[in-house]
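Journal club prep — side note

Before the paper discussion, L.F. wants everyone to see what a predicted structure for a comparable chain looks like in token form. Sequence:
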Amino acid sequence: MRIPAQSVCTAIRDDIVAGVYERGGRLTEELLARRYGVSRVPVREALRTLEAEGFVVTRRHAGACVAEPTEQEAADLLELRTVLEPLAAARAAHRRTEAHLKVLRGLVRLGQERVRKGQGEDLRSLGGWFHETLAQASGSPGLITLLTQLRHKLAWMYVVQPPAAPAVSWSEHAAIVDAVARGDAERARTLTAGHAGRVAAAHRLRHARRDDRVRDMQQAVNTVGLPN
């Protein structure tokens, strides 16, 4: 059975986001084909897609490599998300279905329940699911695609600190859902913009954390053999 290039693309993208492949590292078709158990044809197609998305670059004499976004590029993407998410919420107020509302309300209930019980382990995944559903409710395929790509890229570029007051965050989610349910596009836009701005402040570039780990490792190496 031929594995479609889209599945290979998803697998490679997920591994890039997870840090399996270092930024700037080479991505050879042969090794990728062997890792994912496919021929080189879907790998080649997947790399073209990932290059268009900004995860991969082609370098002379090196071929396909994992991209190395600058701090400015990362900041631009974070700002872009704070613009697009309010737009999606405003459109959702006019285009959402009852199924969308049911999922959004269910996620809010789960999130608030976890907060009350002090079970914060899966709050981040619930929050991601909430924003993904809100984007889907916009009924705008192009906007949904952009926000999906942004979520992948931001997860790759940033570490997100847990909110200091998760109850406030989920209260904001609840208010957004109420505005969407009432069809109040401007309120949905305003609430989402405020929420997105506060969430953006919790983002910290991953490379800083990686540099810290490298320094810690170097310090550990330098102290090996020293008396206790």
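L.F.'s comment for the group: The CA atoms of residues 100 and 133 lie 7 Å apart. Keep this in mind when we get to the figures.
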